[in-house]
Amino acid sequence: MTTDAETTFDAYLSRGQRIEVADQACLFRPGDTSQSFLIVLSGRIRVEQTNAAGRTVVLYRVQAGESCVLTTTCLLTRHPYSGFGYAEGPVTAVAITPETFHSLMQTDSRFQQLIFKGFAVRVGELTGVIDELLLHRTDLRLARWLAKHGATRIEMKQQEIAQEIGTAREVISRVLKSFERENWIELGRGYVNIINPVALAAHGAESDV
User: Which of 68, 64, 63 is nearest to 37 (CA)?
Assistant: First the structure.
């Protein structure tokens, strides 16, 4: 996180309490009320949504130096959370009380700008997520997602990959096996070896029509 107080939350770290969150801890779930405005110092938080059928899609991740717009929305509207937030690795953050948050929103224009900037960035990301879910085939989405990682080994279960793509594990399993037959990847228990990211990228660039 940079030290430019004009573009980061650094100037507000002293207004909250430093907290430590364990890997995979659930920070919030649907129905919870927001207890604090979090500024992540290290680690990251995965924010995801689950529908009535149990299908989960990852909406975005909160990195170091960022705040969670779902939390911000809950604080501003005083409505409960509609999604889940999980720590990915140990997370260190600063927790600002709702009272302090509302005071800053009312009196500090720089804090307001940071909040609105965060909203603008997330809206762009969520628009991309919605576009992927509605307009593109699963095999193309998965190929693009895999290609972004390059020639590496992804230590994730197929259910976790399905959540990243926003589809069912059974669908991901079928598509991964088809990619393996093309020798683009190698599958193992709890991991995927990416062998040919160039071919995956080319497949992901194909038209849905």
Answer: 68
Contacts of 189-196 with C-beta under 8 Å, sequence gap 24+, read: 190/155, 190/156, 190/157, 191/153, 191/154, 191/155, 191/156, 192/146, 192/153, 192/154, 192/156, 192/161, 193/153, 194/146, 194/147, 194/149, 194/150, 194/151, 194/152, 194/153, 194/154, 195/151, 196/151
Cβ atoms of 171 and 138 closer than 8 Å: yes
- Terminal C-alpha separation, the chain: 42
Q: For residue 97, which amino acid is it?
A: T
pTM: 0.67
pLDDT of residue 130: 76
Check residue 9 and report its DSSP letter.
S
Q: pLDDT digit string (tens) for 120-154?
A: 988 888 877 776 666 568 899 899 999 999 999 99
Beta partners for 185? 194
**Distance, CA of 78 to CA of 68 (rounded, Å):** 15
Amino acid at 4: D
Going from the C-alpha of 37 to that of each of 11, 54, 82, 180, the distances in angstroms are: 15, 28, 16, 44
The β-bridge relationship of strands 153-154 and 191-194 is antiparallel
